[in-house]
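Q: Hi! First time asking for a complex rather than a single chain. Here are the components, and I think there are three in total. Is that enough to go on?
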Amino acid sequence: MLELEGVDAGYKDLQVLWGVSLRVGEGELVALVGPNGAGKTTTLRIISGLLKPTAGSVRFLGRPLDKEPAHRIVEMGIAQVPEGGRVFTGMSVQENLELGAFTGRARKEKEQTMKWVYQLFPRLEERKGQRAGTLSGGERQMLAIGRALMAKPRLLLLDEPSFGLAPILVEQMFEMIAEINRQGVAVLLVEQNVRAALELAQRAYVIENGRIVGEGSGDALLSFESVRSAYLG
Amino acid sequence: MSTTMVAQSLASGILVGALYGLAAVGLSLVFGVTKILNVSHGELLMLGGYTSFWLFTLMGVDPFAGIPLSMFALVIIGLIVYQLLFSRLIKLPTEDKIRTSLLVGFGLGLVLQNVALRLWTADNRGITPSYAGAALTILGVRLPYVRVASLVIAFVFLVALQLFLQKTYTGKAIRATAQDWEAATLMGINVYRVYLLSFVLGTALAGAAGTLVAVGYSVEPVMGLHWTLKALIVLVMGGIGSIAGTLVGGLILGVTESAAAVWISGNYRHVVGLVIFILVLLVRPQGLFGAKEG
Amino acid sequence: MTAKKGISLALLAVGVVVLLLIPRLGVSDSLLNLLILMFIYTMLATSWNILGGYTGQINLGHAAFFGLGTLAARMLYTAGRPLPLALLVAGIVPAVFSMLIGVPAFRLRLRGDYFTIGTLALSQILYITVGNVLPKITYLPMADIQNYQILPRYYIILALTLFTIGAAYALVKSRLGLGLVAVRENEDAAESLGVNAFAHKLLALAVSAFLGGLAGGAYAYYQASYYFNYTFSPPWSLEPVNMAFIGGVGTIHGPIIGAVFFVLLKEWLVLKVGEYHLIIFGVLFILVVLFLPGGLVEAWERIRRVIVRRTRAKVTVSPACARDNGLPGN
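A: Yes, that's all I need. Here is the structure of the assembled complex.
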């Protein structure tokens, strides 16, 4: 469904990604793991169009993405949950969700999708009138995911959804992600919590210094010696 | 000093203050959303005033009925100015964008002012429909109808803008972009469209404000800096992104000026606001321009 | 590089000698007046550039400094005080006054735009207030007017101009100047290297205000009559910014070139198109800000580089080498 081929990318004089290739199949849950600064977030920004590659290609459902502006990519079915959630703190929970369904297709099905999101995250429904800025860290993260789902994406990009959450919430968060995936949404998960991510994912990529250095099923990578020693202690 | 005199000056302050609010709200909207600080806002307001003046003088169009026309004219001018100049800055980092936009606005103000000077001379002009002199007198306080009507219209504009931003999808997209343009992009919002829209909305509001100034007071080519400063003062007092704050800031400024005119001297009417402005900038800058970014 | 420096110095020396000799050549007073105007504008643009160009703090109210300088100098001079004292005070008053906005704005590390708008407001406050307190025309002392001597004014203002340029040069080439540029490029990084950003910005502001005031002093000594608040009016804020940008902001020669260009073009345009020249200057300014942020200096640099590359290529030096040599030294 999503294919990156030999993508180079960077900021100004600093090249961050070097020939990154990866693939996410229909309905798959794929993890992208690696140390801080390896290029995980940059990869997601390339897919969502916030950053354009300097070389290589990005294709989604067979269509090239590298020339599409970021807002069009959302409409094509890719939603990104940015690092830290970045909810609109000055707006209510419900307004945040409404904005998630901004694009034409999603807007028509807004009411239904919102019901679904509230089912997934009943906590959000309880707080729907509240300003997002007053939510706890975990609730904000839920709202950010819920907001992304409002776009009715075929592929969900998650950037560190467990960051800053209490351990018990992390577990819930991962269950939630598995649930969303079971309902048919493909997921590309970027995580620092490598063990949890690899246990959850069907397949995973390891990225280091902007290059993909390992690929395999989650279980396989879990037992892979270098991954074990580098990330799992 | 008589009570009536005090009441009269208070009333005048409120009447002009509503226009300060309306003049500021356009500038505030543009700055809040696009981070373009357009110091030629006053000159755009001036163009709005002249549009109404000429519509009235040449074609007899009633100034109040002509408000949509002067707003339309300013939409066109706003589009041109944005596409030609400010859109080139839109992708700069915030600090650079503010600084460069200040310079561009500064130059644009100079150009517009001198174009107006050449086209329409330096004369001070007012719109004088048949009802211009009529006034309502309550307990000795004289309230000219046109200024009262301007107050009402300014208020209606502010409420309408508030509703638009709060209730419509487009309004929400504007607020989202103002808060975090990258997150807004990830919602599928074309933020560049939002920037253009906000800018043009801001100039349209300047057009409306210009008409009300022309009918209640007068217009001249050099008025731009004066009104830009009023708008900036109100902006600093009321805070970015708060329409209610802008209105209150405008009213406070109008009343303070009137008070200064009564108790100090009419000559210092326009100094008081500037002094307050400097003090506010220096004493509590955090609550003013910046708000939160990112 | 030393050769380049030598050429610059030689050019400078020739320029100064020419300027010193011009009055001896029996030229008309109107040419001398034009040159004096260039001198004053050079002082204005150079003084503005110290803050605006080297620290990146945009001052849209330079008229406040210029105006205070004229006011102080005029008051003292017409009261019969010696000219040197009047000129000194013309610099000191705005320098002290500038601390009023500089200390709070820079100490709180306000964003640049607060400072910018603050200066705009301050200059307006002074413009209105001076107009209220002194709503009349000021004249040079009777003795000066009846026997108006242009030559001493020419030489004194030339000296002040050279002093201003020299002061700017000395400041910029000193350790302090490096600190200024570091603060402009990245304040946090500069601080981490031990540069006190607050002190640097404040110093630049004080020097800029002092020299701006000195320009005012020159004007007060030169101009026979004007309204007291005229020198506080918005054009005196606008023009230094305009000249510095058109010439090339953040360089020593940029504002000088800008001032000369500005005065000449203005003279020419006034003859050609009358009052439309302000529109043309506004457009030119916008174009420079948007498309040529280095001004005429940058334009010349670009042209020179192209020429150098072309000629070098003809002499069959390898292109890479030609490019290296074509880059400005330093």
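A: The mean pLDDT of chain A is 91. Let me know if you'd like any chain examined more closely.
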